[in-house]
Structures are given as structure tokens and as C-alpha cells.
Write a structure and sequence with these properties.
CATH class: Alpha Beta
Structural class: alpha+beta
Strand content: 15-25%
Radius of gyration: 16 Å
Strand order of the largest sheet: 3-4-5-8-7-6
Length: 217
């Protein structure tokens, strides 16, 4: 899927699951909302939004949610499934993973761009499977070889750097991607900058800052 940013610039941030590419989490999607509250976890999408970074380390200005198409901010199963070629099947896969809700936020000042996506699941296994799918799908789209055990990030995180992105990816410069499973959450951070080191530094710092805001449940 793509996100249309100010000025018509597009950045491809694939959130599409490979259909049937990971084991389902039977019954996970049926957990009651009160379970999250009792465990100290967000009980609604708005609660989750309160835990998403308000600012990024680079100081980029935030893009208003309504200036994106589709809008950023809170996400439902149907919203995320809508990024796929087969939304109905995608919704089934997400439900099997125990997907509850998500939140997306963007910051931009050409050519620099940072995005933070946080998604919450009913259990740890669904979050881990989803994070693995994100890493696999984005790597297939952008190319390269991800580091699945980076020394400077917690266990459960993977990193991909794209120093010279192809024109058809929509990336405006060197980029870095980080995907993490953190308890019942997934965190996906992407950064585009003027040079590869700056992109990686931004993605790394934003990821650590976001992880610090999330409980593990």
C-alpha cells in the first residue's frame, strides 16, 4: 500500500500481510476489551494513540492526519485490510492474528520523512507473526537483506537499510526500516533522509523512544 503525503509525494510502506504466510492465533480476536484494561494495556484505539510518539528525534514537523489519504491516526481491522489486494481475505488473516487496533503517525520535511505505526494484538504470538510479515513483505518490495538480530535494538526487532532506492518505490532518498514485536504490540518505523546514516539514526532513535512508551502486558 502507499501513503500519499503533502505535495503528492508517495512513500510505499507495505503493511500488507502475505496471505496465509504465518500461523494463525486461534480465538485470539475474541478477547474482551476489558482484558486490556485489567492488564494495563490500551483498551481502545484512542488509548493506544496516547502512547504513540508525539514528536520524533529529528524534530521533523508532524503531518496532520487528515492530510493523508487514507488519513493517519486510528486504524481498525477493516482499515488495515483495505491496503491489501484482497481486503476480505486480509481481514480474516488479521482476525486470526488477534488484531485489535492500530495507530499511524507521520512527520515530513522534504526530503526527510518519518513514520511510526503501532498495532495492538490480543496476544504476543499474533504481534510476533505480524512483525515478521511486515519485515518480509517490505524486504521483498524494497530489496536488500534485513538484519534480524541488530546489536543496538531489543530482541524481536529487525532492520533494513535501502541506500539507493529504486525510483518506482516512491522513496525520496536513502531509507531505513525497523520492525519490532513488543509484547502484544508491533512497532514499524520508517525514515527517509538525505543520507543513509541519518535515515538509520532516525529510525533507530524513534524506535527506541516508541518502545519505551509501550507496556509489555
Amino acid at each position: 500500500m502507499t501513503r500519499q503525503l503533502l505535495g503528492g509525494t508517495a512513500v510505499a510502506l507495505l503493511l500488507v500481510l502475505a496471505t496465509g504466510c504465518a500461523d494463525a492465533v486461534p480465538g485470539a480476536a475474541t478477547a474482551a476489551a476489558g482484558t486490556s484494561r485489567a492488564a494495563g494495556l490500551p483498551a481502545t484505539a484512542d488509548d493506544l494513540g496516547d502512547l504513540v510518539l508525539a514528536d520524533v528525534p529529528s524534530g521533523l514537523p508532524r503531518v496532520p492526519d487528515e492530510e493523508l489519504e487514507p488519513p493517519a491516526g486510528p486504524k481498525t481491522v477493516q482499515d488495515v485490510a483495505g491496503y491489501a489486494e484482497d481486503p476480505e481475505r486480509e481481514a480474516e488473516v488479521l482476525a486470526d492474528y488477534g488484531y485489535r487496533w492500530g495507530w499511524e503517525r507521520f512527520w515530513k520535511d522534504d526530503p526527510a520523512l518519518t513514520s511510526v505505526f503501532v498495532d495492538q494484538f490480543a496476544g504476543v504470538s499474533g504481534a510476533a507473526a505480524y512483525a515478521a510479515d511486515l519485515a518480509r513483505n517490505d524486504t521483498e518490495y524494497y530489496g536488500g537483506s534485513p538484519d534480524r538480530d541488530p546489536d543496538d535494538l531489543p530482541a524481536g526487532c529487525s532492520v533494513l537499510t535501502v541506500d539507493a532506492p529504486a525510483t518506482d518505490t516512491g522513496l525520496g532518498g536513502p531509507a531505513a526500516f525497523v520492525w519490532c514485536a513488543h509484547g502484544p504490540f508491533t512497532v514499524a518505523v520508517a525514515a527517509v533522509a538525505a543520507d543513509p546514516d541519518a535515515a538509520l539514526a532516525e529510525a533507530h532513535a524513534a524506535t527506541l523512544a516508541q518502545l519505551e512508551l509501550l507496556p509489555r502486558g
